[in-house]
Amino acid sequence: MADQAAKNNFDGSTTPPRPQGIFNFIIAPFAALICEIARARADIDSVLERDPAARSWLEVSLVYPGLHAIWGHRLSNWLWRHNHKFTGRWVSQVLRGLTGIEIHPGATIGPRFFIDHGMGVVIGETAEIGADVTLYHGVTLGGTSLNKGKRHPTLGDRVVVGAGAKVLGAITIGEDCRVGANAVVVKPIPANSVVVGVPGQVVVRSKPHKASDAPDLNHSSLPDAVGMALSTLMQRVEYLEQRFEGHESDLPHPHLSEAGTWSGEDFMI
Questions:
Q1: What pairing do the DSSP bridges indicate for beta strands 201-204 and 193-196?
Q2: Contact, 168 vs 142, CB < 8 A?
Q3: Nearest by Cα to 61 from 43, 76, 87
Q4: Which of 16, 106, 220, 241 is an S-S bond match for 125, by CB 3.0 to 4.6 Å?
Q5: Lowest mean pLDDT among 16-30, 46-60, 96-110, 154-168
Q6: Listing from the earlier edge strand, what are the strands of the sheet with 108-109?
Q7: Average pLDDT, stretch 37-60?
């Protein structure tokens, strides 16, 4: 029988028994350590890629609170998933005090997540964040329900959320979306869209952002959907007034803005 077992192992037809003691106490922890080092390297690379102020690995590792919050979350999330929930919450609160960033240990976070500046960021328990997502300071991924189930948003891959934005409820933000600063998002957003305003107005990109493209951090390129609609309506009204023969009116009314600048006389300023 020993000869047959050796033959099977040599042929590859059967898997040799694994030495459980050695694997559990030496190989498995070492493999997990290698995996965590690789994840940490990817985190640092993502900061260097997306923050022009980042100058070196050492600087990023030591003085970026967003990175520290993510690394600490991995510990608190491990404790949470292994039913050490109180300890997980305690770790998350310690990190909140050290970094100004509150991430619930139950939140699910994908690889290469970057929190720039970070102060005031809040991520709820059932939030799910995809790969290569970027958040800026003051962002809230909050819940809108008292139910114990899913009540926080899901962010797809490569989503960028600007400073002060609030994404509320069990909604999904599609891949490659950009949420403008201080926007309030309360409904699902299709992939490759830009969201601005309160409540958030959705503008689908005319040129889709692809996974191979550089991160979309162009915060100055935000459409004013409501303002554009009002300007178009005012243009139409003025055109109709001009076509209406004999129309004369002394009633005050706002004039169209010039290059995005309104006249103060129209608003008694």
A1: antiparallel
A2: yes
A3: 43
A4: 106
A5: 16-30
A6: 108-109, 128-129, 154-155, 172-173
A7: 90
pTM of the shown model:
0.75
Strands (DSSP E) found in the chain:
102-103, 108-109, 114-115, 122-123, 128-129, 134-135, 140-142, 154-155, 160-161, 166-168, 172-173, 178-179, 184-185, 193-196, 201-204
Tokens of 221: 């390129």
In this prediction, residue 23 has a pLDDT band, given cuts at 50, 70 and 90, of low
The answer to whether residue 128 is domain-embedded is yes
Nearest CA to 266 among 257, 235, 226? 257
Class of residue 111 by CB neighbours under 10 A (exposed 0-12, middle 13-18, buried 19+): middle
Handedness of CA 200, 206, 211, 212 (dihedral sign): negative
Residue 190 lies inside a defined structural domain of this protein: yes
Q: What confidence tier does 25 reach under pLDDT thresholds 50, 70, 90?
A: low
**Residue 36 belongs to some domain of the structure:** no
Q: How far apart are CA 190 and CA 177, in angstroms?
A: 8
- Taking a C-beta distance cutoff of 8 angstroms, is the pair 66, 114 a contact? yes
Give the total number of structural domains in the chain: 1
Q: What are phi and psi of 251, to 5 degrees?
A: -70, 135
62-77 pLDDT, tens digit per residue, is 999 999 999 999 999 9
What is the rounded distance in angstroms from the CA atom of residue 169 to the CA atom of residue 178? Answer: 18
Rounding to the nearest 10 degrees, give the CA dihedral for residues 211, 215, 218, 221.
10
CATH number at residue 175: 2.160.10.10
Which residues, in sequence order, are bridge partners of residue 193?
A: 204
Domain assignment of residue 159, yes or no: yes
Are 92 and 105 in contact by the 8 Å Cβ rule? The answer is yes
How crowded is the C-beta side of 260, counted as CA atoms within 13 Å?
A: 3
Domain around 161: 107-245
Residue 145 has pLDDT above 90, yes or no: no
